[in-house]
Amino acid sequence: MKRELRELIVMLTDAYKLFHRQMYPKNTVTVYSNATPRSSKNYKGNNKDEVVVFGTQRLVRKLNDSFNEFFGLPEKEVIDFCKEQLSSYTGSDYDVNHILHLHRLQKLPLIVKALPEGTLCPIKIPYLTFYNTDEKCFWLTNYLETFISAEIWSLVTNATIANEYRTIFDFWANKTVGNCDFVKFQGHDFSMRGMLLAEGGRASGLAHLSSFCGSDTVPAYLDAQYYYDSGQNNWNTMEIVATSVPATEHSIQCAYFNPEDGNELAYLDAILDEFPAGIFSIVCDGYDFWKFITEVVPQRKERIMARDGKVVFRPDTGNPPDIICGVNSKSSLDKNVTKFTDLNERGLENTGKRRFGGIQITESEFKGAIECLWDIFGGTETEKGFKLLDSHCGLIYGDSIQIQSASEICERLAKKGFASINWVAGIGSYTYMYNTRDSHGQAIKATFVEFKEETGVLLLSMPPQTQYKKVGKEIFKDPATGDGMKKSAKGLLQVKNVSKTSAPKYELVDQVSWEDEKCGELQIIFRNGELLNQTTLWEIRERLNSSRK
Fold first, then answer.
1. Which of 147, 223, 247, 369 has the greatest count of CB atoms below 10 A from its CB?
2. What is the pTM of this model?
3. pLDDT digits (tens, 9 = 90+) for 366-392
């Protein structure tokens, strides 16, 4: 089976939609649908009121590319394939004349409208509407629901999550540093390996780039160029689409480890030899992270300080706030411990450990990685009076970081007198994968249909012509057994900006006329094969940056 046929866009649907063209009223000519975040009750972040509009341009470009491939294949090959496969699948003599008609149009008969990407869309406000423009393709609107939903919900959700991280980091950077210059690199995407399929990883990686520049997801860098006209990185102007640095992994650390002596100097020396300048990241927790930081690293302090660049140390196991900030009374080690605040209050026991409540911990565990690095390398003080590690060293943590733990780390660092930008968060699938379409209750629903009704016969024409008019019907969903979350809007929709400031405030007006539907904040981004009102990654980031101020 040829890949081009197996991946036909008309096959990317739910089976129950295959027969819907026969189930609508016989004179149906238009179906009008929308995508709306209906509820945030299942969302694990802090902002329960809004979602970030992101991915709509990627959606229409993927639709356009997929249908152009469909139109580019020979008609007989396409129709024979659809007839054979769908008849076999459904156990019927499946009629493919509607697919034949669509193929002969040689353009996708659809209008898609959306709110500008990078804006905050309130819950219960549609950010996307779409409807067919060819009367015989009324079936196509909701036939595409499956594809559209699958392609859009995760990008909206993950862009919303990325924006939450950025908001947290901006807040603490302003508080402890006085500017947010570094924050665009403080959230680093590690998600691809843990997402559902590689395609899911490149999608989460692209959504991440709406708020950050740091990324280990190479395809996201390429997709940002293709779908959002970002161009490549411009290092002269620091217009960075996405970037990363050389970094080790555990297989490399373990390859150098000698279990007989446990000496890891050879590992550190090898990486320093390979990268005498620039930034690199070195994983340190393959065996004993605290030993590596407090015993191995100090032996190469002079060499690290002499480099033109930064060595970023990476712990990757444990409770992130405790590893980075040190153990305190909120530690997961023991919920009943009492805070031991004075390092000089009592001396170290013979074991080299302190007693923290009922638990023995080392002094380095008590201090945390940032303070340990400060003890070794020192640093400077920000204009806000917080300690900032010397530019030759840094720290990244990329295991099981969440919105809540990222916020806790920044807060605990500040309480210890350290700037929030002393660490970088590796944001992975623990953040971007543990979500579903129900995180924001995203759904696509039809709210308006049109029927073609006969009004008479024009006898003067030869041959006589039947005359028709379109009659619209407002439809809606309102299940009596639900809590109201699934109640839909009704009829044609308009989204209005009612803000009196530069920050938009959207409200939905439903049951409008076609004339009013054409007004408002929803912009046409696709019409019958033509891409319109396209945006760039830079514009999206600027809209989001403006919303945080």
1. 369
2. 0.93
3. 999 999 999 999 999 999 999 999 999
